[in-house]
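Project outcomes to date are best conveyed with an example. Our students and postdoctoral researchers have been running inverse folding experiments weekly, and each run begins with a structure described purely in tokens. The record below, which covers 470 residues, was selected by the lab manager from last quarter's runs and is presented without edits.
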């Protein structure tokens, strides 16, 4: 199942890569001198955009530098759309798209892709599902037909559903044996409570087990409709292929309207210390977090720069103090994930059991000092240099740039985010950034999740405050 192979290493990239590196990351259409190419931001390639009569939006970006082509789609379907009782439905639906169609079995689809030398990726996340098929340009018509078959004609056979569900349940069971991933899940539950963001995109063991074929079919029919999808075609192709893409996607007839967007922001926040006991763990996982911002927030860029100073880079305050000075951990970082609705901010570390109290208190000290006193001009300049230095990698290929452009359109963000990226980063000022810290970085609202052997660490936690058991 391609989706599990791609997502076990991706998800919760999700969850902090979208905020941490533009809207995702990769490479540019032509080789250019970096000093001129990125003096302000990225130069967007020539493009054609079309909205078909059925409501589907197409974006064409040509790049003949290599004989390759990529067809990708953003579907407005993600874990945010799952109910609590059917958590994991969007993930399971996406997982089944290439597991048999009305024309071919799962094995036949896999054989076709292998014969074309094609690569298929299906990545469902919290806010959307990203699909991509790519290969050599001389196979472009076959790639188009395969992409359309997988997207438009999934069969959702019961035997395939049972098999894929069993595989996902196995992954979820294994996640519980991974202290790092399990601590992340606990943190999400503490922060988001009954909100869909509280649950893994894969769902939970009890809810996933309940999902039936009729639920998958209903979800597909509701969200996989032309008006809910954007498609980009990137690479080496001609006008004839553009017309073929338009013609074939135009045959997708549906009068269904996109589901209404319902605000799902979390209104309350949970602070305090939360302990989950796991007897026998020799290291303790620590997560400290609170609710933060959504992706369209006007201060997104300034907050990225600020977080880089706190814990978003190796040479950060948290890493310098907790790791280098005190030797309490091999690594500590901070990040935030700005999503469609309000996302999380989190400090992430681990330590040996006898140092849990010290690791938490020293991290809190760094965070309070950062929030209350602000950063220095030197730190801001280093942060800006890092952001500017990372930028070319995120738009270095035409495929990566197309992904960024689709993501911007999904979130309703202007393309000037890319074209003026460097200029806007350089324009950040110390008063501007420091003026935001007390408003958005809130030590008093931190929920502190500790996952470890309670017999070894509970006494240390009691010295820091009241403990709630998870």
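After processing, the design step wrote out the following sequence:
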């Amino acid at each position: 199942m391609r989706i599990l192979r791609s997502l076990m290493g991706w998800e919760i990239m999700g969850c902090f890569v979208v905020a941490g590196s533009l809207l995702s990351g990769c490479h540019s259409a032509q080789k250019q001198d970096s000093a001129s190419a990125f003096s302000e931001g990225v130069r967007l390639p020539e493009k054609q955009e079309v909205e078909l009569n059925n409501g589907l939006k197409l974006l064409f970006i040509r790049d003949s530098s290599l004989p390759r082509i990529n067809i990708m789609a953003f579907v407005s379907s993600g874990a945010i759309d799952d109910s609590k009782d059917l958590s994991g439905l969007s993930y399971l639906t996406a997982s089944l798209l290439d597991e048999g169609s009305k024309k071919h079995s799962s094995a036949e689809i896999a054989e076709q892709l292998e014969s074309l030398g094609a690569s298929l990726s299906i990545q469902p996340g919290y806010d959307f599902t990203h699909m991509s098929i790519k290969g050599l340009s001389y196979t472009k018509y076959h790639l188009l037909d395969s992409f359309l078959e997988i997207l438009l004609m999934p069969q959702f056979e019961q035997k395939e559903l049972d098999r894929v569900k069993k595989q996902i349940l196995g992954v979820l069971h294994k996640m519980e044996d991974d202290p790092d991933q399990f601590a992340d899940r606990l943190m999400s539950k503490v922060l988001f409570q009954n909100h869909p963001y509280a649950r893994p995109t894969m769902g939970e063991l009890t809810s996933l087990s309940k999902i039936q074929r009729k639920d998958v079919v209903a979800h597909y029919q509701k969200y996989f409709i032309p008006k809910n999808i954007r498609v980009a075609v990137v690479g080496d192709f001609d006008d004839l292929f553009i017309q073929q893409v338009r013609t074939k996607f135009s045959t997708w007839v549906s009068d269904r309207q996109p589901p209404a967007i319902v605000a799902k922001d979390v209104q309350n926040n949970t602070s305090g210390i939360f302990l989950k006991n796991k007897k026998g763990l020799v290291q303790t996982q620590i997560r400290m977090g609170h609710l933060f911002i959504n992706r369209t927030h006007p201060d997104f860029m300034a907050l990225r720069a600020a977080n880089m100073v706190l814990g978003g880079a190796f040479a950060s305050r948290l890493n310098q103090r907790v790791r280098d000075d005190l030797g309490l951990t091999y690594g500590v970082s901070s990040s935030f994930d700005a999503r469609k609705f309000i996302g999380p901010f989190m400090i992430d570390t681990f330590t040996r059991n006898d140092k849990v109290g010290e690791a938490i208190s020293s991290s809190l000290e760094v965070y309070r000092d950062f929030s209350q006193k602000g950063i220095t001009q030197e730190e801001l300049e280093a942060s800006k240099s890092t952001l500017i230095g990372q930028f070319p990698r995120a738009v270095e290929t035409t495929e990566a740039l197309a992904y960024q452009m689709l993501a911007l359109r999904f979130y309703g963000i202007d393309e000037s985010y890319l074209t003026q990226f460097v200029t806007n980063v350089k324009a950040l000022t110390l008063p501007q950034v420091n003026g935001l810290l007390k408003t958005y970085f809130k030590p008093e609202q931190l929920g502190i999740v500790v996952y470890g052997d309670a017999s070894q660490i509970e006494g240390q936690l009691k010295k820091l405050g009241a403990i709630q058991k998870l």
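The CA atoms of residues 56 and 282 lie 53 Å apart. Residues 3-21, 24-37 have pLDDT under 50 and may be disordered. The training component of this project remains on track.
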